[in-house]
């Protein structure tokens, strides 16, 4: 089996800690990170930015028939989440299908995103849980 | 120079299964929960393992103490369920909490006491000023074969401790270990579930090692059990820690705040450390805590801890152990089997 280790490794900062970028000049936030600000172009002042990870569900779909790698997870929900800083990303929300609703607040958790079968590497990273579940 | 706990954090998954439900499936005695003094145990979600729980507890420790992760010079994760046989848990934790790359790391394994061994290693590095701060973690998604006695207690949880010399929330006044070659519980390479010696895990293993380390520490400190406000013992079930406390002269009241096993089961490398975290959650400045872990194979690490004024400043900056215990969602045996990957598809 060909391992996707290098491809996974390149995305570790984004997957573990939601590291994106922020343009100091116009204040825009980018996730995934951009090295160039399309608003400011050569005036851009780009810096790394760690997103808080809190946001809300813009829309979602619940998967009942998954590919082999995710078969044990069903049913699970994938959502487009708008982070509080602005950018939108796709992520799994760890919640029962009946708990899911558009507009719900979410917060990040560290989970297994997938595995390369029995022998390959384990992909870790960020998923989301309902913020109402927030313990504090 | 004093060294000790700068901050701490715990994590317990939200799922639970009642011991009665496991007994129902296997047709065991209705009294098993009462006999073990374990009524329910924590169950990891299907996307949680020893690494993800280590990260959650470490993040709680970092935020509770407002610790700059770049000051951490060592990460040691103790577990008997590291997801990789080769590839460290500790490096994943380091990356996930935003450490610099200038830290040493290794994974520890000593059955249920790998986490306290990690604390001792950090104490050595911190005390000798080789590093500024160390991060010691005990984390486990413990395994019990379906139908085995272990299945009633094998649970999941993690606790992380930042060890340093300054801004201590609790000083570690002394530590003593007692270690012998005693094969009471083991898991061979490549085997999914551990084996154990049944009753052999009691007197010659748990009781001998816990009492020897504890008495050694009391002697070293020149202290008596009544000099301590609280005591925490490794808790493989709800009976052993109560019995060993009585044997050593500690009261039920002293161990009550740290006795988590009746509600969450045996979290293995997390067990004594989650018990300590739950005790720190309610300890007052100047309280003294006596902690003794146990790891099969076999050994015990005992610690004498004195809480400082700083505990009141940091306590509420991360979820407490009882916050996690209060958030429980119950599974039946079938869903539990799915969560734990006990079903081969």
Fold and architecture overview:
The complex is a heterodimer of chains A (136) and B (345). Chain A is mainly β and 136 residues long. Chain A has 2 domains: 18-50, no CATH class; 52-136, Beta Barrel (OB fold (Dihydrolipoamide Acetyltransferase, E2P)), CATH 2.40.50. Chain A contains 2 helices and 8 strands. The longest helix of chain A is centred in the first third of the chain and has 6 residues, at 5-10. Chain A is globular, with a radius of gyration of 16 Å. The model of chain A has no long low-confidence stretch (mean pLDDT 93). Chain B has 345 residues and is α/β, with parallel strands linked by helices. Chain B folds into 2 domains: 4-169 and 317-339, 3-Layer(aba) Sandwich (Peroxisomal Thiolase, Chain A, domain 1); 171-311, Peroxisomal Thiolase, Chain A, domain 1 (3-Layer(aba) Sandwich), CATH 3.40.47.10. Chain B is 33% helix and 25% strand. Chain B has a 9-stranded mixed beta sheet, sandwiched between helices. In chain B, strands 3-2-14 form a 3-stranded mixed beta sheet. Chain B has a two-stranded antiparallel ribbon with strand order 9-10. Chain B is globular, with a radius of gyration of 18 Å. The model of chain B has no long low-confidence stretch (mean pLDDT 95). Chains A and B meet through helix 2, strand 7 and strand 8 of A and helix 3 and helix 4 of B.
């Amino acid at each position: 089996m060909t391992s996707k280790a290098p491809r996974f490794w390149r995305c570790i900062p984004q997957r573990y800690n939601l590291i994106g970028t922020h343009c100091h000049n116009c204040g825009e936030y980018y996730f995934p990170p951009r090295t160039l600000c399309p608003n400011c172009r050569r005036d851009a002042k780009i810096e790394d930015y760690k997103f808080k990870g809190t946001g809300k569900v813009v829309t979602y779909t619940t998967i009942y028939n998954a590919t082999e790698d995710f078969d044990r997870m069903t049913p699970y929900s994938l959502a487009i989440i708008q982070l509080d800083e602005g950018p939108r990303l796709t992520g799994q929300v760890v919640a029962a299908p009946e708990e899911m609703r558009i507009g719900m607040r979410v917060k990040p958790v560290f989970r297994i995103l997938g595995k390369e079968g029995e022998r390959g590497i384990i992909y870790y990273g960020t998923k989301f849980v309902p913020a109402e579940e927030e313990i504090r | 120079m004093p060294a000790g706990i700068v901050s701490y954090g715990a994590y317990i998954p939200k799922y639970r299964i009642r011991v009665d439900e496991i007994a129902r499936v296997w047709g065991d005695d209705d009294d098993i929960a009462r006999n073990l003094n374990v009524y329910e145990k924590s169950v990891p979600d299907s996307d949680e393992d020893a690494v993800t729980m280590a990260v959650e507890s470490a993040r709680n420790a970092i935020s509770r103490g407002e610790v700059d992760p770049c000051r951490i010079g060592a990460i040691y994760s103790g577990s008997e369920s590291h997801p990789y046989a080769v590839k460290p848990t500790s490096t994943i934790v380091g990356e996930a909490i935003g450490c610099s790359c200038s830290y040493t790391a290794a994974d520890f394994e000593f059955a249920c006491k790998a986490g306290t061994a990690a604390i001792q290693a950090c104490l050595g590095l911190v005390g000798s000023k080789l590093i500024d701060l160390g991060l010691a973690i005990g984390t486990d998604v413990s395994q019990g074969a379906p139908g085995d006695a272990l299945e009633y207690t094998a649970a999941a949880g993690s606790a992380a401790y930042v060890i340093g010399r300054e801004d201590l929330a609790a000083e570690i006044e002394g530590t003593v270990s007692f270690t012998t070659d005693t094969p009471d519980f083991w898991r061979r390479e490549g085997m999914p579930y551990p084996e154990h010696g049944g009753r052999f895990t009691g007197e010659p293993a748990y009781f001998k090692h816990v009492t020897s380390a504890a008495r050694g520490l009391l002697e070293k400190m020149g202290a008596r059990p009544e000099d301590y406000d609280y005591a925490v013992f490794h808790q493989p079930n709800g009976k052993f820690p109560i019995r060993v406390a009585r044997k050593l002269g500690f009261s039920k009241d002293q161990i009550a705040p740290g006795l988590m096993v009746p509600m969450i089961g045996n979290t293995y490398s997390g067990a004594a450390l989650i018990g300590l975290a739950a005790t720190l959650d309610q300890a007052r400045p100047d309280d003294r805590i006596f902690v003794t872990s146990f790891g099969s194979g076999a050994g015990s690490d005992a610690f004498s801890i004195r809480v400082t004024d700083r505990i009141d400043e940091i306590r509420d900056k991360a979820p407490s152990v009882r916050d996690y215990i209060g958030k429980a969602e119950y599974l039946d045996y079938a869903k539990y089997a799915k969560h734990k990957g006990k079903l081969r598809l």
